[in-house]
Amino acid sequence: MIMSNYAGLAGHVKVEDHVLIAAYGGVHQFCRLASLDGGGRAKVVQDVPPYLIVDGEPATVRTFNKVGLERCALRSSRSNG
């Protein structure tokens, strides 16, 4: 997990592997973040599925994280053979 300056998690938040929360990003309590790439000043108020890029107030899905998916596939192929 990488948290930039002034990013915040409120209350109980489940953060999984490979999460990036950019500057001034905020996450509402009882949310689950899975492989998130959040833009600056993103206000996350709902769960974020894996490998999506969210941004805005409130945060909405902008696109999928192609680089994260490629890295995941690369890690999987290295561990399998």
Task: Describe this protein's structure.
The strands form three sheets. Strands 1-4-7-9-10 form a five-stranded mixed sheet, with no helix packed on it. The chain is 19% helix and 32% strand. The chain has 81 residues and is of the alpha/beta class.
Mean pLDDT: 84
Distance between the amino and carboxyl termini: 27 Å
Q: Give the neighbour order of strands across the main sheet.
A: 1-4-7-9-10
- Strand percentage lies at 25-35%
Q: Please tally the β strands and state the result.
A: 10
Silhouette: globular
Helix-strand makeup class:
alpha/beta
Q: Helix tally?
A: 1
Low-confidence stretches: none
Q: What does the largest sheet look like?
A: 5 strands, mixed
Radius of gyration: 13 Å
Order of helices and strands: EEEEEEEEEEH
